[in-house]
Amino acid sequence: MAKVTISSVIDAPVEEVWARIRDFNGLPGWHPRMVESHIEDGKDAASIGCVRNFKLVSGATLREKLLDFSDANFLVSYSILETPQPLTNHKATLQLRRVTDGNRTYAEWSASFDAAPEDADKLAEGMGANVFQGGFNALKSHFAGKN
C-alpha cells in the first residue's frame, strides 16, 4: 500500500480555513485543479456516503465518496470510487488543527492506496505535489494579507 502525507501552515485562523474548504462539493471554489463538481443523487454535501463527481482542469472526471466529516474536528475523509489513475483501495483525510502561535492553521492531507509497484511512487508523488500541496498553496495565497 502506498502512502502520502503533505502538511502546511496557513496564516489564518482554523475556523476561516475550514469555512473555505468544508463543503465536500466546493473544490472548484478553492482548488485550482478542479473546475466543476456536483453531488450525485441530490444528497447533502455533508452526509456520509454522498458521492461527489468532479472534473479536473485536464478534463478527467473523478468520483469520490465521503467517509467522515466533522466540523468539530475540522476533518473530511473520502475514498476515490472512479479515477483514470491506476489505483484502488484509496482513502484520504484532510484535517486542520489550530496553531495557537499566531492564530494560524496546521493542515495535513494524507492518503493511502494500492497500485502496481512500478506506479505507486509516481502516483503518490503526483497526488502529494499536485493535489495536496497545490490545494495548500491556493489556500495560503487566498489568505495572504487578510490577517
TrEMBL record:
Pfam family, one: Polyketide_cyc2
Gene3D superfamilies, sorted: 3.30.530.20
Entry-linked InterPro entries: Polyketide_cyclase/dehydratase, START-like_dom_sf
PANTHER family: BLL4707 PROTEIN, SRPBCC FAMILY PROTEIN
Record's protein name: SRPBCC family protein
Organism for this UniProt entry: Mesorhizobium hawassense
